[in-house]
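queue> pop job 88
queue> type: inverse folding (structure -> sequence)
queue> payload:
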């Protein structure tokens, strides 16, 4: 497996390369995990989609153009899972903040007891004795990627066989996945553990692993045979979805770029920005060290975005992951003399937490930071209210209508 390069050009090239797989091949083979050296028939577009070096609508459109909506439907639906999770978390940010608190509490608890910390360490080092799980740990920490089905099996084994807290598993993923995303990751782990759909959990079965890994693994009797659902799961009330912003750009408007959206030029065009600043919050994804290849990917993506959106000032990506770093960024922004900054919408998660703190500090010195949502998010996030199938019932026909007209 090759390490992906964090540029728009590399993302487009992976899109071209994976396009033949996004029709009937995907429908037939998407659940089979041939392993890191195998011939997986999925797109591997996730690191670029995660950082918006590729956008959901352009990937959907490319797949439909290549295969027609009927043949590409399964792939298109999976891309829409990403939009669904993003919208769901945006409308219930409490799930992110509860996760952060739970992760913190569980880490403190596990550090207090030697047997617990050793158990957690064995899982994170891939020394559980469950061959498939240990291999996935190695794959994840080496390549920053796991096939979707392996992620499901992994999370289920973590929670129901090893009896470890879901929030520490979600944290382990977020530290190591190149596509680590606060919405897709947190909410998928919640779904597996039974906190998304009341009464519903996901149990990894040995026969399913054997079949869909093409017999690479046969976990036999080693796995839990039950996945009990937690009690008292309720959905918190819905918050608002972002509305369109009628943004304006003057001679004194700057651009702030974050790792949440590395293609600001497709949103704002390329005006003569008074200044361009890129900030990096990757370390805020966890309170434990984030895998260096994850930080390196985000950093390279920010450099690529700066290159495509450079103003006359020349500032490299700046860390924003501590109070001190934020003060440094604030000072750098002040020194430009720019009092109005635009930024692509920063969705709920660690970067938004850092940006919200920065935004308040900027407001205190009369500098405005204005986040602008993308049309796709404004259009589809309002439908992320319940389960995916209700979301798809609204978004599927919208896509059919749009692309039927073009076919
Ligand atoms: C426990 C768990 C944790 C996960 N954590 C993340 C994460 O942090 N970041 C992330 O991007 N995805 C996450 N996923 C979803 C999914 O596993 C990955 O998006 C997918 O495996 C990426 O590989 P691919 O690009 O080859 O996907 P493909 O199958 O080729 O799909 C194309 C694109 O659709 C999106 N997509 C596909 N399946 C899903 C899905 N189930 N949920 C959300 N989006 C999807 C991705 O953007 C993906 O790149 C998680 C799934 C599970 C079960």
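queue> result:
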């Amino acid at each position: 497996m090759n390490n992906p390069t964090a540029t728009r050009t590399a993302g487009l090239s992976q899109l071209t390369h994976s396009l033949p797989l996004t029709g009937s091949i995907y429908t037939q083979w998407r659940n089979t995990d041939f392993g890191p050296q195998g011939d997986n028939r999925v797109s591997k577009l996730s690191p670029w989609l995660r950082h918006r070096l590729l956008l959901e609508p352009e990937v959907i459109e490319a797949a439909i153009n290549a295969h027609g909506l009927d043949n590409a439907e399964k792939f298109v639906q999976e891309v829409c899972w990403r939009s669904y999770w993003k919208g769901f978390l945006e409308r219930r940010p409490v799930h992110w903040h509860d996760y952060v608190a739970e992760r913190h509490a569980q880490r403190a608890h596990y550090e207090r007891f030697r047997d617990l910390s050793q158990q957690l360490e064995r899982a994170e080092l891939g020394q559980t004795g469950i061959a498939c799980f240990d291999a996935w740990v190695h794959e994840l920490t080496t390549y920053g990627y796991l096939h979707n089905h392996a992620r499901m099996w992994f999370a289920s084994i973590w929670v129901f066989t090893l009896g470890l807290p879901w929030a520490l598993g979600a944290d382990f993923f977020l530290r190591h996945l190149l596509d680590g995303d606060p919405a897709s990751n947190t909410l998928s782990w919640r779904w597996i553990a039974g906190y998304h759909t009341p009464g519903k959990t996901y149990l990894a079965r040995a026969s399913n692993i054997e079949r869909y890994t093409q017999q690479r693994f046969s976990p036999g009797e080693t796995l839990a045979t039950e996945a009990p659902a937690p009690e008292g799961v309720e959905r918190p009330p819905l918050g608002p979805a972002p509305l369109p912003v009628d943004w304006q750009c003057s001679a004194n408007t700057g651009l702030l770029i974050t790792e949440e959206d590395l293609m600001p030029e497709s949103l704002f065009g390329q005006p003569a920005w008074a200044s361009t600043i890129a900030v990096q919050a990757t370390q805020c994804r966890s309170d434990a060290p984030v895998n260096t290849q994850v930080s390196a990917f985000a950093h390279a993506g920010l450099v690529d975005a700066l290159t495509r959106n450079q103003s006359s000032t020349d500032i490299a990506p700046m860390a924003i992951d501590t109070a001190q770093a934020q003060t440094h960024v604030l000072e750098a922004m002040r020194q430009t003399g720019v009092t109005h900054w635009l930024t692509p919408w920063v969705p709920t998660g660690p970067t938004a937490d850092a940006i919200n703190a920065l935004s308040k500090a900027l407001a205190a010195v009369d500098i405005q930071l204005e986040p602008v949502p993308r049309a796709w998010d404004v259009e589809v996030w309002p439908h992320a209210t319940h389960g995916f199938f209700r979301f798809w019932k609204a978004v599927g026909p919208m896509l059919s209508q749009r692309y039927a007209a073009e076919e």
